Amino acid sequence: MTIAQALSAASAQHLTPGFVAAASHNGKSLFSQAFGRLAPGTPTPMTEDSIFWLASMTKAVTATAAMQLVEAGKLDLDAPLGNLLPELGRAQVFDGFAADGSVKLRAPKRPITLRHLLTHTSGHVYDMWNADFAKAAKVLGIPSLGTSLNAALNTPLMFDPGTNWEYGIGIDWAGKAVEAASGKALDAYVEDHIAAPLGMVDTSFTPRASWATRHAGMTARAADGSIATIDFATAEDPEFHGGGGGLHGTAHDYLRFLQMVLNGGTLNGAHILKPETVRVMQANHLGDVALRTLTSAAPHLSNDLDLAQGAPAHWGLSWQINPAPGADGRSAGSLAWAGLANCYYWADPATNVAGVLLMQMLPFADAQAMALFGAFERAVYAAVNA
Predict the structure, then answer these.
(1) To bridge 260 with a disulfide, which of 192, 267, 298, 329 should be the other Cys (CB 3.0-4.6 Å)?
(2) Which domain holds residue 125?
(3) Out of 50-59, 154-163, 303-312, least confident range
(4) Is 266 found in the same domain as 302?
(5) Residues ≥6 apart with Cβ < 8 Å to 303
(6) Where is the Beta-lactamase-related domain (predicted)?
(7) Counting Cβ atoms within 10 Å, is residue 211 exposed (0-12), middle (13-18) or buried (19+)?
(8) How many structural domains are present in the chain?
C-alpha cells in the first residue's frame, strides 16, 4: 500500500477535515499530497501549498532563533533574563487562593533563564490545561493569550523555575528575548535569519493578502463527531508576535525547516545553526523532571494532552523526544511536537526521516486526527524500508 493509499484509507476511517501531508528521507522529498477541501461545504480543494495556522509548531522556530543568538553570544541559556526582560524578572509565583478569593503570590526561589523558557520549566502555563491558573487569571484580570496583548504574558508562575514541567507560554517570552537581544521584531528576525535563507517562502507571522484563497478554514469537531467550519481569526496587528504560536505556513516550508535540523543546521548552503548547537537542542534537558499528562480545562480547545500516548518522553530545546522506539516507526531520539489546530510533525535523526501533517481543527489532540498521523507515520516508514 502506498502512502497515498494509506492516508486515503485512514482518512475515510478517521473522520477528519481536509489536510496536507508531506515527508522526506535523506533530505529529499518522499511524499507530498493534499486531501479533501479547504473548508467543509466549499468546492475549493485543499492543495499542497495551502496555508495553515501552525500554532505551537512555531516554538521550534523561535527556539532556533534564540539558539542563533546564543551562538552569537547575545543570549545565554543559563543567565537570569530579568535584566534583559524586566517584566519577566518581576514575575511572582502563585501561592494559592486566600479565603476572600484573592490570589496569593510570592517571590520565586530562583530567576528565570532561557533554558527554563525553552524547556517549559519556567513556571509559565496555559489556561487551557491548568484550572488554577485559569481561575487566577480571571481574578487578576489577565487577558487571554489569544488577544495578542502584552498583558497576556504578565502572568504568575505556577511553580518555581526549574522544579517542574508544564507546557506553557514560556517560548512567547523567549520570542521577547530574541527581540531584545537582536534589536529586531520577531517576525523580521525569523524572516531574515530562518525563513528566507531556508526558502520558506510561505511562512510568516502575519497572514498575507495573497493567502486569502489558500488559507485553510478552521473547523471544530462536535460531540456527535461531525465537523463544521468555525470563526477563528488571528489578530492582524498584534501587540507582539507570538513566539509560541504565531506562525502561518505550509507543509512544504515546515518540512524544509525539519530537513535543516536533521542535516545538522544547514540546508542547500544556508547555515542556520552549528552542528553542535543542533545536538544540544536534541538532548534531554529535563534531568529528573518528568513530562506528564495535562488535563484539559477548556475542552472546546483541547483534549487532555499526552502526545507520547503513555510512553516515556523527554524534552529538548524545544520539542518532545522519545527515548525508546515509537509504536509507529520512529527511532529512539526522534523529535516531535504539534500545533493546537491538530498540526503534527516528527523528525528522526537516526533514519533521516521527517514528516508533517497539517489540518485546521479543534479541539487539539483529537483522537481521530492522531490516528491519522499514526497511519501516516507507519506508511512513511513502510515506504522507506521497502
Answers:
(1) 267
(2) 78-178
(3) 303-312
(4) yes
(5) 296, 363, 364, 365, 366, 367
(6) 4-368
(7) middle
(8) 2
Tell me: the pLDDT tens digits for 328-369?
Answer: 999 999 999 999 999 999 999 999 999 999 999 999 999 999
Average pLDDT, the chain: 96
Query: Among the options 32, 59, 204, 334, which is catalytic?
Result: 59
pLDDT tens for each residue of 90-114: 999 999 999 999 999 999 999 999 9
Taking the whole predicted model, whether its pTM rises above 0.90 is answered as yes
Catalytic residue flag (residue 56)? yes
Alpha carbons 235 and 240: distance in angstroms, whole number: 10
- Looking at the structure, tell me whether residues 127 and 216 fall in a common domain: no
Amino acid making up residue 112: I
Do 259 and 335 have their domain in common? Answer: yes
Active-site residue identified among 24, 32, 56, 122:
56
Give the pLDDT band of residue 238 (cuts 50, 70, 90).
confident
Same domain, 338 and 256: yes
The span from the CA of 73 to the CA of 96, in Å, is: 39
Q: Using an 8 Å Cβ cutoff, are 346 and 355 in contact?
A: yes
59 is catalytic: yes
Write down the catalytic residue from 50, 126, 167, 345.
167
What's the CA dihedral at 193, 251, 367, 233 to 10 degrees? Answer: 70
16 three-class SS: coil
Same domain, 17 and 86: no
Strands 361-362 and 219-221: parallel
Residues 82, 66 share a domain: no
The CATH number covering residue 320 comes to: 3.40.710.10
Per-residue pLDDT tens for 201-228? 999 999 888 998 999 999 999 989 999 9
